[in-house]
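fwd from M.: "can u put these together and see what the complex looks like"

so here's what she sent:
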Amino acid sequence: MAALTEGLQDYLEAILLCSAEHKFVRTKHLAEKLGVKSPSVNAAVKELARLGFVEHESYGYIELTAEGRRQAESVYSKHRILYRFFAKTLSLPNDLAEDTACGIEHHLDELTLKKITRLLDFLERKMKQSEEFTSELRKALDND
Amino acid sequence: MAALTEGLQDYLEAILLCSAEHKFVRTKHLAEKLGVKSPSVNAAVKELARLGFVEHESYGYIELTAEGRRQAESVYSKHRILYRFFAKTLSLPNDLAEDTACGIEHHLDELTLKKITRLLDFLERKMKQSEEFTSELRKALDND
DNA sequence: TAATAAAGTTAGTCTAGGCTAATTATAGTC
DNA sequence: GACTATAATTAGCCTAGACTAACTTTATTA
């Protein structure tokens, strides 16, 4: 499949999230979500259309193609796992967890993601099973 | 302190590593280590010198300033922790662990790094204490 | 229905960070 | 001491991805 830069992956992810919120995705929504100006969105969407990840007719709505959705969901699933790790397991502040997840989500391959998921599942299972384990872990993490 | 892009952080880290290997760091070494051509190194080093992170006289050696070393070590310490996490804790292949660590090291702040370190310390302590814990964790991670 | 507001697009600029080709400096060898 | 190989630098180009300013399209509303 075609090459997707980090930046374009961010756009795909934002389109996925916006389409959950608004049903129709517009340039304006993406600009707001990503904190960029509309010409930047326009250029990115044009490139994504050229690569076959979105459909977009001029002055109209923006929609993911099947492949675009697949890619967007891949990125977003990484984001969610990482957020879980940072916010829940490590108890970092939500906005920091969010920012960190966002920064590194592009750099994890499927195998790494799978391993992290299993580690989180394991830790959560242990914590559910054992109060002692939970307090040990919390104490280890909060050792300020 | 002045702004350092991800790319410039990579150069600082490479200078730190090269200075451990070669004693005198040269453009050529950095180009090899980073997989770029020498004009790219030259431009980056020039910028780092302008920002006060390295000293470099034309056609001579490249040296970190105190601040440059501090920055480089900050990045490298993140790298090492992440490598430990990916290679040791998650048992990922060394080169994948290396690449992943390299990709995300720029995106972790000190607090996040501290929490990850504590989690790793905790897990390693538990594994040292308990064979059962170790095999449970290994089994959870290798659940193919 | 004409006027205006809002949204989208286009054109042109900038920065970071690569590259190649050509030049200049240094070092090693006859 | 001159010649050559290696290294470093400069000049100039390219791409991604941001921006502003100007323009066009669409939608709203008097």
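replying to her w this: The first strand of chain B starts at residue 54 and ends at 56.
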